Structures are given as C-alpha cells and as structure tokens.
Structures
1.
Amino acid sequence: MEKSKSPKLGYTGKDVVLSFQHMFAMFGATVLVPILANMSINVALLSAGIGTIMFYFITQKKVPVFLGSSFAFLPALCSCVGGGAGAIGSDTWNKAMGRTSVAIMLAGLVYVIFSFVIKAVGVEKIKKLFPPIVVGPVIIVIGMILVPKTFWNNIIGNYAAGAENFGAWGTGSGAWQQWTTAGITALTIILVNAFAKPKSFLKVIPILLGFVVGYVYALCIGIVNFDGLKAAWDAKQFVIFQPDQFKNTFGFYGDMRFDASAIIAIVPIAIVTFMEHLGDISANSTVCEKDFMVDPGVNKTLLGDGVATMVAGAMGGPANTTYGENTAVLAITKNYNPANIFLAACFAVFFGCFSIFGQAIATIPSAVIGGASIVLFGMISASGLRALVDGKVDFSNAKNLMVVSVILSIGLGLGSMSLAGDITGINTLKIMIKGVEISPLAIATVVGIIMNLIIPDTEKKTAK
C-alpha cells in the first residue's frame, strides 16, 4: 500500500454533494444512539462533526474517516442516562448526564493512553498482529454482523413489534410498505452504481440518490411522519441556542462529577472498542489502498478517536467511533478524499445547531436507512474478501483455513444471537463480563490474533 498524501482543500459542486452523501450515510446510526439512550440528537450531531474535524487534523488530513455515535456504549448509556433518568433537561436527567459525561471523557482518555503506548511500542509490532488472514475475516464480520440488526432495527421491527411470531416477517401490518421502501432504496443504489457512466457525476452519488428515491416513494405511500417536525415548528424551536433549549440541553454541567458506578459501566468498554478501531482502520486501509496503520499511524488515528470521544463526553454526546457506513461509501464511490469527510463534518456541525433540522431528518423512514444499509454493509464485507484475495491467502494451508474459519464462526455466530437485543429487549443473548457487554467483533478479533500467533505454520516450514 502506498503512503497517503494530504489533499488540499478546494471544493467543487461535486465535492459538496459527496460530502452531503457522507453525512446522510452516518446520520441514521448516529441519531439512533441518542434516541435510544435518552440523549440529545443535536448534541450527538455536533459532537460527531466536531470530533471528525479534530480527527481530520490529528491524522494530518490523511484518513477519510467519519466518527459517529458508538453502539458499543449503548447498553451502558441506557443504564446510566436512559428513560429512567427522566426527560432531557429535568433535574434527574441532569444528574444522570453529569456523571455519564465524565465517564465518557475518561473512556476517551483510555484511547489517548493506548495511542501513546502504541507509539512507544512501534506500529510494525502492531501490524504483525493483523496479517490478511486476520484482517480479511474481521472486515467481513464488521459488515455481516450489522446486516441482521439493520433488518430488525430499520425494517422488520417497524411492523413486527408486539407480534407473537417474529419469524412471520411478511405478514405484519405495514409489512409491504417497509419492505418495498427498503427494496426500492437498495435497488436505486445498485442500479445507479451499475449503469452510470464510469466518470459521470451519478457514479459518485448512488447512496444519496437512493435516499432521495426511497424518501419520495415513502412519501407517496404515506409512511413519512411529520408530527415531530410540525410540533417543533409550532413551538418555534429552531436552534439549540435558544435560551430554553440551551438550558435543557446543557443544564447538566452543574451536575458533572465522578461516579464510580458510571465509570465502571462505561470506561472498560474503551478496551473493547480499541479492537474495533484497529479493525475499522484496517478496513479503511484496504478500501483506500493506503496503509493508514503506518501513515499517519494507528497511534494518531487512535489519538484522534480518543480526543473526539472526550469532546463528545464534555458536550453531553455519546462516545464516538469510526463508522463502517462511510467506509462503504468510499468503496462504492472510489472517492477517497479526506477533505470531503471534513466538509461532511462541517455540515454535521452546522445542521446540528438547528433543532428543526434534526426533526426534519427524523422524518426519513427507517426503512429507507435500512435499504441503504443493506448495500453499505455488504460492501464492507466484500472489502474483507478483497483483503484476502489481495493478500494472496493460501486456503490450502491448514493454519490459514483454521484462523479464518474461527474468526468468521465466532464473529457471525455470536453476533446473530443478539439480533434484536439492542432495540427490543427480546431474544437477547449478550456477552457480559462484570456488567460490561463485549462485542462479538472484539472477541473474534482477539481470538484471531491469538490463533495466528500461537498456531505454527508447519506447512510453510515443510516447504522450506
């Protein structure tokens, strides 16, 4: 992989549209976390945008990564500042958010500490832990572990909630609206990407077009809900800096404190997401054909992630993480300019200031997001296959076959057992260690690294 160069800022109309596309790609997941955790949607947008801007400069403007709300922290956030804490801005919520924000900042500090450790140890030693037989299947897991959840969260759950048989996906009320909306969104992205001329403008905006066509279709069949937008408009709630909204959003500052229970629940998760960060940066390197682990260095990408998370905690937003959705956008458009991610982050900051914008975007049906996610997450997994092919992994070698097989089995197997757990609380089988939920991706990554280190490559030695 070649070294990455830092592009100059200088935007065309094409770049602006590309940046909007990146913002829309991350929007669904970034907004979903604060909704479920009883946190401010606008602050989540602001912290994601500001965090991405800081990441952009810390990584020397070389890494096209967008940072958004981390799902890994969601169970802990729900327990610390969930619905039981009361409405946003209430006294009980301010107290809960005060201790949660401090814990999130400490989690970001763990990232920062890890970044200095990696710098001291050397990136080459870190890279040895991630040969193609580890990176390839881990990237596949990143995409495939998200697919079942996007089906449930954005499509099935919209009409299956409360049903006795969740296996009857096509029989619930409103099922056809959800499935056709998702299908038309996905089909638009596929057709535009397949038939647009190679160097045409349409070729680089298939995801954005998918959102537009899917939204128009959803509007026509009547599944777009404008109630929240209308209520915000009637109440003249336009920007978060209006006195009442500002007080409700940032009133927790007077209650910030160190709380042992919040720290124990949130901070250890940073160790898990550290492994996810390494996997995501490896995926980005594969997609962009530039070794970001070396240039600018995984220590800097981790430092950027940590600083962004600390800023998010200080603002009252969820912890940040690198976003696979945007990696998939890079893979589809083949436009790897980090400056476009920077502009997308600026858009997120700008629109995050407008509470009315958050309500407008919230009118996008989740089925539209689900349809786009089907393609996006599939592209991530396809990049994992590419890593295996480019790395010329020999599957006649017993060690290679065993490492890849176990990573896929653990990652996909454990991931499928929590299909609906994050959202509905049913059919849940979570992996918990002293109250901390461990993601299947982190477990699969650790197991793969260990297996690659301890299993001897007898066939290679015999060949010599």
Note: Residues 138 and 225 are 38 Å apart (CA to CA).
2.
Amino acid sequence: MPQFENLVQEFSEYYKKWQEEVYQDGVTKGTRHRRPGGGSKGKLPTMTDKLFFTLVYLKTYPTFDVLSTQFNMSRSKSNENIHKLMPILARTLIRLGAMPHREFSSAEEMKKAFKGIDKILIDVTERLYRRSQDDKKQREHFRAKKHHALKNTVMSTLEKAILFLGRTFTGKNHDYGMLKKEFSPEEDWFTDFQVWVDLGYLGIIKDYSGKNIFIPHKNPRKSKNKPVTELTQTQKMENRALSKVRIFVENAIGGIKRYNILVHRFRNHKTNFDDDVIAVCAGTRQFVII
C-alpha cells in the first residue's frame, strides 16, 4: 500500500533522529555508551514492524495481554513499545503536515492557518471512558445520566478534511461551552467564514461576530396555551438543507472512528494519553486522504 510505505519511510527517519537524540542525551549524562542500533533487535526488528505494531493497536485496541500474544512479547514490553512509538508517530504526522491544528492563540492565527477555506463545519465527537473509582473524577466524566465520556471539538471542510481537533474535555462539559473555552467570543474568529453547527451550539449567533453562522431552528417549547408545537414547513425545509451540509463533519468524525481505540471504552491510565490517541488517529486518517 503506497500510503503505508510512505509513512514507514517518514517514520523511519524520525525514529532514527529520536534514537540519536536519546543516545546523545545518554552520553552527556554518562549513562549511555552503546551506539544506536546496537544490541538485540527485539520483537520488532524493522521500522515496518514498529509502525504496523502501533497501527494494529490503534485499529483494534486489544488488551496488552492480547497484543503481547499477537507479537510474541511480554505484556510489559508491549505496553512500553506503545508508549515509546506513539509520540514518534505523532511527530512524524506533524512533520508530514497531516496533523490537525490543536489550538490557536488568536483569530488572526486561525485565519492564516485556514487560508483559502471559506466554509467550516463544527461538531463534537464523543467516546466512552472508563468509570473512575474516585468519586470526583467519576462525576467529572459522567455525561447527562448516560455514561462516562470524553469529548473533542472538531472542525472540518465540506471535503471531510479535519482542520481543527480541540483538546480533550471530560463528558460533563457542554458542546458550546467547550467551543467558548477554546475560541473566546471576545475575538472575531468566524467573521471570514461560513459556519455550520447543530443545536448543541445555541447562542452562537448572539455571542460571536459574523452573519454567516448557520444553526437549525429549534422546535418551540410546549405550553398550556400551545400544547402542540412544531416548526413551519419553511423551517423544516431549512433544517433539512442545513443537515445536508453538516453531514460532512459527521462523516469526517466517522473516518477517525474507524480506529477502535476511539470506539471501545477507553481503558488506559497514562496522563494525556486519551488526548494523544485521538490526535494520532485524526492525523493518520488525514495522511491517507491528502
């Protein structure tokens, strides 16, 4: 597969660079004498093996017991390899320009990054999270009396390319609240774009500048005077038209969720690993389509 072969080449170059950095750091501290590449080759002797091992983990999300059996290594070694290789894959994707933007310091920076793009679709992706034994953490991840979750804001184009992947929030955070934390309403983020959102972003037209923000009509509330309420035919037609555009961001989210690590309940405990994996999955998916 051409994309995999290209990724192996880039991954290999960065891996060797990382090895040299580790070696030089060890030499400086007096803890390393053997040159990179010396000694036993381990169970993943080639760059293809290392990259394939990492992608298999992201795609199938096996337990480390299962992963170690598949690759004929100890459970602790499979854990160690994943946490060693994941950052290298992430930096490789950044170097290739495949990683979505994660944050912007200003509206000007975002507009510069999105140069040539005039339409943005915004939505939130949600994934299951383990139930913490700590009561405070458990409440933080509890999502609307349903389940424990993690959430990220996603911005995409009509071509399903992911422009922006927000930082990982806990499940109790509201979709629109997440947007306001990452894109302060005090700045003119969206004045140069046409923006499509769903009803999770009620209030966006009032809070943000820009006349080209499109959000569906909300069904009127029922009351004693109006026990039966519904949208007008015109409003229904407008909502259908909006949904035909918004479907592309949902397709983009569906693309990164082909990696089962984003579908099954997230089990890992390492700090920030929940954020790292969704970024790598998004970057890998971007690399395939660009």
Note: The first helix runs from residue 2 to 29.
3.
Amino acid sequence: MNIKKFENIKIFIGPMSKNIVDSVIELCNSENLQLGFIPSRRQVEYSGGYVNRWDTKNFISYVNSRTDNVVLQRDHGGRGQGDLKRNDYFSFASDAYCGFDLIHIDPWKEYLDIDEVVKETAENIRLCNRINPECCYEVGTEEAIHKYSHEELDYFLRELKQNLGSLWGSVVYAVIQAGTRLEGTKNIGKFDEERCKKMIEVCKKHGLLSKEHNGDYLTAEGIKKRFNIGLDGLNIAPEFGVLETKIIIDSIKKQRPELFQEYFELCYNSKRWVKWLPRSFLSKDLNEEDKLKIIEVCGHYVFADEKFIKIKNSLKDLDVKIKEELKAYIKEKVLA
C-alpha cells in the first residue's frame, strides 16, 4: 500500500530556494504533475536552514497549504548529516512529528560496518514510527558517502528486513548506485548500466522502489535511459540552484554589473563552495572565471542573506524571470 502512493513520482527536486519551491508547486498544480521535494538538513531543519530561513514545521506547512501534488521527503537524515550533528535524533523526531511523507535514513557517514548500519537504521525507523506511524522510509546511501555492490545492498536489505519485522512495510525506497558523481557544475561519474540493472533487481527482490541520487546535469536522454531500464526515482538538487544562480548572474551583468563583486564576496565568505570544487582550485589565483565558478556552485546558499536580498531587489523582474525559466526547464528536460 505504501509503495502505490509513491510509484508514479519519478523526480525528486532539491528545494534550493523559495523560487524553486514556488515553481514546482505552480507547475504541479497547473499541469497536474506529481513531484517530490528532498530538503537536506542544511536546507531545512527544526532550527532553521539556509532556504528562506524555513524551519521544518514552516516548510512543510507552506508546501502542504499550496498543493496536494508534491511529496515531502527528508533527504539524508541521520548521524553525521547536517550542521547540528549532536541533535541527530531530535532532528528525526521533528521530521516525523511535523509530517514528512518520507524520511531518508542515512547513518552511513558514521559507520563502516554494514551490520552497524542495519542496527542504526532500524533504531531510527522505530524512533520515527513511534512519533508518526504514517511515515515511510528510504534506506541506503549514495556512492559519494559509502560505495556498495549489489551483493552488499542485498545483504543490507535482507538483514534490515529481519531486524524490522512488521515495520519493514514502511520502507519504500532503497538507494541504488550506478556511478554518478558531482564536481562543480558537472556530473563527472560514468553510468554503469549493468550495475544499475543489478541493483534495481535487488530492490524488486525485496519489494522496494529503486532511487538514484545525484541525477544533476544529466541529459534528458540519460534520465530516460535510467527509467527505461527500470529505475523508479531520481534525485536532482544542486542543478536547480545553479540554474537560478546563472539567471541572477545574467541579470546582474545586464542591469548592475558593479554588483558582481559584491555577490562573489558573499559566496566566497560563505565557504560553501569548498564542497563542490576540487582541491586544486583552492590554490588558484582568483580571476574572473574562477569567481564565476565559485558563485555558480554556491550562489544559492546566500539567497536568504540580507545583503543578497538587497542585490536581488535592485534587479528588475528577476523573480518572474527565474520562475518562468525554472518551470520551462523542468518541463523540457526533466519531464520530457
């Protein structure tokens, strides 16, 4: 029964900004589409996040009050995730209490042993279930955090199923790995079709839907290929933040070029770009091309900063342009 609720949702989008959230809601309502949101703990958390300064309760309330066509999922909940690492269990409790439809249970950063991951995952699911028995779950992790084979995924799911007993029915998705990897504003991974097929079969064997992370910067053909071989869901996140940032940069260059340096300094001082750019980049002299790369990969992290809001407010018709282009992008590439 739980799987039927989600099986028609192919794309899960990172809510990198209020414009992205509003664009997805408006598109889903006007086209009668079903999509998912996958906020990370840094984006939306019980104590607030960098996306519109929303806390978990306010974010869920905002989306649910505007549409019935968007599924809400916590992405990468668990130990070692988020900025408030000492409050991992409180974060889970808040997610369940505030009403996420799905919670991704991902303690893989903290544990190397699969049996320990099984135990921690099961405990997290039991915690959330005590608070909200209606909540469903995604398990496993992406390759950048912990790489596993299809045999290891099979073992993990088998042991987790045994550990959970009747609660196994609340698990809907397992994360499969097929070689995707992000660096800067590119997907530099190499798609392994056979590995993907084997992991999809493992998910089917255990009665779960398969989901791949890091679907950013793929071609429409690359996305279609994955679904054609049986993939059930795909996460796309930073790509939408980068797209919005590029629209902003274009408007700055056309309307207020003197603001480029100010926007760069906000991004540079945030240090968020370090996650996305190679180590060799740190030693470079920052020319205009380098500055542009830094803005592109982390511009969305500062959207809620008062200094950025002043920059944005000085640009004419920016929000209208952003939402038009975001909706067109989703329709033409992701939903083609």
Note: The first helix runs from residue 2 to 6.
4.
Amino acid sequence: MSDPCDILIYVEDPGAANYVAGLPAALSAAGMEARLLAEPAAAAIAAQVGAACEAPGGRLPREWLEAVRPRLVVVGTSENLDTPAFAFTAAARAMGIPTVGAVDAASNSAYRFRGRSANALEHAPDRLMVPDAWTKQSYAKLGYPADRIAVCGHPHFDTVRAFRAGFDEKGRSALRERLYPAAGNAPVVVFVAEISGGLNEGQYRKSAD
C-alpha cells in the first residue's frame, strides 16, 4: 500500500474515471509507475475497462502523498463540492509536487474547481488536461493560463468510433430490427436524460430558457 510511484491519480466520479482509467497502463508502457485511487462509483467504471485501482480507504490525501511520494498528482473533477481531489491538490502543492486536473468535458467549467467558494478556479491544479479545444477555451475564458492547458482528446471517443464502425458495417436496418423489432417502418425516438444536482442545480430546473 505504501509502495512509491511516479504518478498518483485520484478520481471520485464515473466521468473522471472514464477519462483516466487507461492512463496507468499507458504510463507503464512509457516506463512510469502510476497508481489509481478510485472511490466506489469511479472504481466500477475503471473495472469495466480492466483498469486496476485501489480504494483510498481511511487515509487522508496528505498521508497518501507522504506514503508513496509521487512526482506528479493527477485529479479528476467531481460533483462533490467537498471532493478529496481538492485536498490532494492542496497537499501536493504544500509538498512541492506538481498537479494536473483531468477534465473530461466542457460542461460546468465554472463549477468544477470552485468548491464552496465564489472563485471558479479556487482549487484548480497547476495544469489541466482536457479533451478538446472547446473545453480549453472555456477555462481560458475563466482566467486559467491557456499555455498550461493540454488538449489530449478522450479515450472514449475512440470507443465510440469503434462502435460506429461496427454499426455501419451491419447497417441501420439490422440495428433497428435487433433493438426495436416491433417498430416496423415507424419512426423511433430515443430520449436520453441525466439528472444531477451536484455542481449546478439550476441547469436541471425549468426556466424561461
């Protein structure tokens, strides 16, 4: 449990886990040792892609850092306004360890590092890794230095492209027949929704917009 590593990664939410789950294996292939700490919801996602992770247990963030002495700390974002990711960032900064925030999407940019403060970047790490230029721009507009934001893509984009290739090969009609055999030639409308009250409750409430 106290074995040292080059990079310590902490994630709490499924979205963050989906973004970084493949990172330990990629870093290992590059000759670096990484350990992934994941809370239960994030661990379930990591398990789906076969990523080994550890439960943080009762250890405080600073205790983890003192035990494994990483050269870099990577944290995901979370809907928890008191996420331990902030404590990991603060402890790492106090110990002189560089930090990176892994942001999986542009949504709620002004809330991901706010915590309970009024400052959108109150708990922002030293650098950010983001999936696309749109997300980079959203943080630059908030005042985060653009030269410290790396656009890295998103591993799940590749997964979606692979699924699409399979669907295209089988054809739309075959997919309709498998999923909606009773629909015939009638239009099929699929509704997808997510209910979340963590970062910005207002966006899930009815408004004039």
Note: Residues 7-155 form a domain with the Rossmann fold fold (CATH 3.40.50.2000).
